[in-house]
Amino acid sequence: MEDIGIDEKRVYADREGSTTAFVAAGAGIARVEIAGDIVGEFGLERRCDARDVAAVGGRVAVATAEDVLVGTGDGLEPTGFGPADAVGYHDHDDGGLVAAGDGRVARRDGDDWATVADLSGVRAVDGDLVAAADGLHRLDGAPVGLEDVADVAATGRPLAATPAGLYRLANGWVIDVEGSFRVVAADGDRAHAATADALYERDDDDWEVVDLPVTEPVAGVVHGEKTYVVTEPGTVLVRTDDGWRHRSLGLSDVTAVAVR
Question: Helix, strand or coil for residue 49?
């Protein structure tokens, strides 16, 4: 599909029936409007070194090299956390924003941050699980196994992406697929995971390689009305009934995607 340039003007009115995706990249946080399976207008919401993004119930949080930003009616505003590597939501009902960076994991309480664990090398936060260089942890820092965890999906039966393979929690951690996995996402019904070379989709208890229309490394997967994928060079893909629709954002160093 033909690329279009990034328009930094904030011309994104929420449209009925549309999905808004947020893409974290080295240049900043991009906002993408998706109507059904059509990737529509997009633009750079804020210039920053965006490392991670999470969204739930209309709320958006971005981990950047300077601070954790949260979405407000006026855009994205700093929270005073400081440099962050990962963000997530622990409790979808009351928000439960969690951030990790500079050797700590903290939960936002009102306008303040309360440290819940001293933990370095955090790569991802999902639900009550934290993926880190030294393994998988609970939010309070308690270790729950594995080593060198790149990503985690806590919904349903937990999944963990590691350089040794894709693991699921059963009676202990059991390897589902061998390979060096970097990305995993699940919503209870759907589950996807990615290595540098392939995207996998769970079908019942089996994992199958997904035939994507691009060969770029997957940087993030998120489930909403549909399944949304973003690649490291900045291509956004939407799963349709007969394949995938996609569009390049013209970004690089993409790390994550979230939808609200």
Answer: coil
Contact 256, 52 (CB under 8 A): yes
Q: d(Cα 232, Cα 256) in Å, to the nearest integer?
A: 9
| CA distance linking residue 82 with residue 64, whole number of Å | 9
The answer to whether residue 211 scores a pLDDT higher than 90 is yes
Domain residue limits, the chain: 18-259
CATH superfamily of the domain spanning 18-259: TolB, C-terminal domain (2.120.10.30)
User: Is 260 within 8 Å of 20 (Cβ atoms)?
Assistant: yes
pLDDT at 7 over 70: no
Query: What amino acid occupies position 258?
Result: A
Alpha-carbon span 70 to 88, nearest angstrom:
12
Which amino acid, residue 47? Answer: R
Q: Are 80 and 63 in contact (CB under 8 A)?
A: no
Residues linked to residue 259 through DSSP beta bridges, in sequence order:
21
Token pair for 123: 């790569």
| pTM metric for this prediction | 0.91
